[in-house]
Give the backbone structure.
Amino acid sequence: MNKISNQFSSIEQITDQYLKKGMPETAQAAPEVSFEDILKHKQSVSENSALKFSKHASMRLQSRNIELSSEQKERLETGTEKAEAKGMRESLVIVDSYSFIVNVPNKTVVTAMDQTESAENVYTNIDGAVIM
C-alpha cells in the first residue's frame, strides 16, 4: 500500500510534521493580554495625559491664528486643575488675552477665542472662571 500509512500512526502526526513546519511560532509565544488589562492601561494613560483640544477648539485656534506657547499651555493646564479642585465642570480659563471654555472632567478645551474678538465679553454655560 502507501508508504505514508506505514510511517505514521495518525493524521495528527502528519499534520504536525508537514503543515506546521513552516509556521512561525510568534503567534503561539505571544503572552495573552486580556481586554480588561488593555482597557485599564488606556484609561490610566488618558487620565494622566495633558489637556486635549476638541476638533472645534482646534479649528478655532487655527482660524483665529492663536498659537500658544508651552508656558501658556502649562498655565491653561494649571487653570484646569484649579477648576477641577473647586468642583467646576465647564470652566472659563483666561490665559493672557485668550479665553478657553474647558470641559473639566474630560480635560478637554471645547472652544478658544481671543478676548479682543468678543465685543460683549459674554460667556454662557459655564459654572466658574479661572484667570491665569
